Amino acid sequence: MKIQIDKDKTVDKKYRILCSNCTTDTNHQVLSSIYETGSEPMDQYNTFDWNSNYEIIQCLGCDTISFKSHKINSENTDYDGSPIDIVKLYPKREYGTLSIKEYWHVPHNIKQIYKETIHTYNNGNLTLSAAGIRAIVEGLCEDNNIKNGTITVKEKDGTEIKKKSSGLQGKINGLHENGKLTKENADILHEHRFLGNKALHELTIPSKMHLKLAIEIIENVFDNLYEIPKKGLELKNKRLGK
Fold this sequence. Notes:
The protein is α+β, with helices and mostly antiparallel strands. It has helices at residues 108-122, 126-143, 168-177, 183-201, 208-239; strands at residues 2-7, 14-18, 25-41, 47-59, 65-73, 86-90, 149-154, 160-165. The strands form two sheets. Strands 1, 2, 3, 4, 5 and 6 form a six-stranded antiparallel beta sheet that branches. A two-stranded antiparallel sheet has the order 7-8.
């Protein structure tokens, strides 16, 4: 077996590929690389040839750094004998991949669950992503000290009564009753609650489209609950000279 290694063979080379942060094709520049090529015997008459190029790349739009591997071998060819390139990007990405937005005022534990939820979504782990959405809703209630809320229960005779509930449905209503959420946002969070219940208890795999919408709404709730009020307070303090 023979192996040759060249360092930084493709440094400064530019590619136009999908950026995990910009979520669109952007120019990337190679910061560092290692190129390996080798030949290994398959039998007494034939050899197996290959080459691998590993690159640290940086998006020239947002400066995000990622990793790219490019492999070719003599046994992996197209119908006409042309070698098939195997290109992988890390973090994993594809068109439709969601970017992780930066939130400065969302509590750390909720923000961490949000990041993990995005990662599971981007890697196709949809049931786990649905569970993450439910955990975020629970975290929002906990952080805002919401222990219960009013729900409507239908009795056996068909009459409806209102009572306090410490379940997730009650807590979401409690967010609205305590002025943390609008009625519309509370209704949206109820949809997340049902999504999580169905995925976890009925082993139903949610659709990627519905999860994407749910994540976007969670991000909107982050803005309304944490980011916008904090930014508004900062602007007010600047205006008052505090």
